[in-house]
Design brief:
Elements: H1 25-56, H2 58-65, H3 67-70, H4 81-95, E1 100-105, E2 114-119, E3 127-133, E4 140-147, H5 154-165, H6 169-200, H7 216-243, H8 249-259, H9 299-310, E5 319-322, E6 331-335, E7 346-349, E8 356-360, H10 367-380, H11 386-412, H12 434-450, H13 452-475
Antiparallel strand pairs: 1-2, 2-3, 3-4, 5-6, 6-7, 7-8
Helix pairs in contact: 1-5, 1-6, 1-11, 2-5, 4-9, 6-7, 7-10, 7-11, 12-13
Length: about 475
Amino acid sequence: MTALDDRPVTPPTRPEPTPDRRRGWFLQLLLRLHFTAGVFVGPFVLIAALSGAAYALAPSIESAVYAHELTTPSRAAPLPLADQVAAAQAYADEHHPEDTLSAVRPAPTAGDTTRVMFAEDGLLESQSRAVFVDPATAEVRGDLLVYGTSGALPVRTWISTFHRTLFLGDVGRVYSETAASWLGVVALAGLALWIARARTARRRRDLVRPARGVSGHRRLASWHASTGIWLLVGALFLSATGITWSQFGGANVDALRAAWGWQTPSLTTSLGPSSAPADEHAGHHGSAATGAGAPTVTPERFDEVLAAAKAVNIDAAEVQITPPTTADQAWTVAEIKRSYPTAVDSVAIDPRDGSVVSRTDFDTFSVPAKLTRWGIDTHMGTMWGLPNQVLLFVTALGIAAMVVFGYGMWWQRRPPGGRVGRAPTGGALARAPWWGVAAVVAAALALSAVLPTLGVGLLLFLVVDALVVTFRGQRT
């Protein structure tokens, strides 16, 4: 036996496994999507969040700003609505002679004023002029422009219009739709990244509260992640409910609700052919006449119609009485209490005999219709009162802070001498399996049909990301 035979035998070396570059492609795609959407959609979300925070407190703000118009020191029993409406008409004759009577909202409680509303040329859609009347003395305490079923006064209307359209009309609505739809995507992508990090983190408590003893990029990242996880539910709620007001996505949501029978029931107000003579005072504080003739709208009718409605299904204090626009239509009385418990029953009354033409009761609404009502009212801050408004205010400010944290992280990641921060590595979709590519593209196409500003933007992101990776590969 030679010396060579005494040498230790070295076991054969196994080749290192080749890493699968396709593993983790989806998480990398979400990371780049989260970053890219945050950079480009961040300004829209920031404006929507800050204006939304202001809108959340607007009901309480306008109660203080317009206390003179909204309240009265009188506590005596209210006069008949006829006297209150007559006083408002006399005021309108003097100050706004071209206005026509459109609706009345009786004072809901002692100390509140009655709103007598008039249609006026040149106002926004769903906007009218309200004359505020002391129900106990019929004293007019002023007039203001009001908007929508919520009866928003000028301050809240201004904030709402800025929040929804930036005062740019339908063009501006694209901004709010972009913010609402992409907010949900960015939030869900952030959740996936948070979960992935939580699975490997040594100190998971730093993911639900800002980490201590760190600085720079790590500190901002900790604030961004911990704040985001607490705001997740609120961000998704605001995103989903905000889409219902959007220009394109909202129309598709309405069509979907109609197809599935989830619509809110509506009143039937048609009385059919009527042989009643036309009102000789048509057009004077009433609605304009049409081919069916002008209706008879007198101050006394409001008391009569309200009494008939209360005998049917109207029992809330907050109601709106709306006269018809033509003689072949019924009067309507609708509950407008949007805080919990919701009171939105309504009834159509035939003024000729006080009979019921049709009625809707909130108790009979489908579950989706009820959820839609509650979701919209919660988004607007009218549901649950001041606690809801404060929660919306804090959530909106938190979302705005998230955007600022994100831009701060991007700035801190810039290379030496660079102007902007580095973006996460692209090309994740190029490393994905065929079924992954098909699933992502199919999801983007489906979203384009339902939520155009989201789906088209997502397709654009995928195309640009692929082109950037291809261009870099050619340069290399």
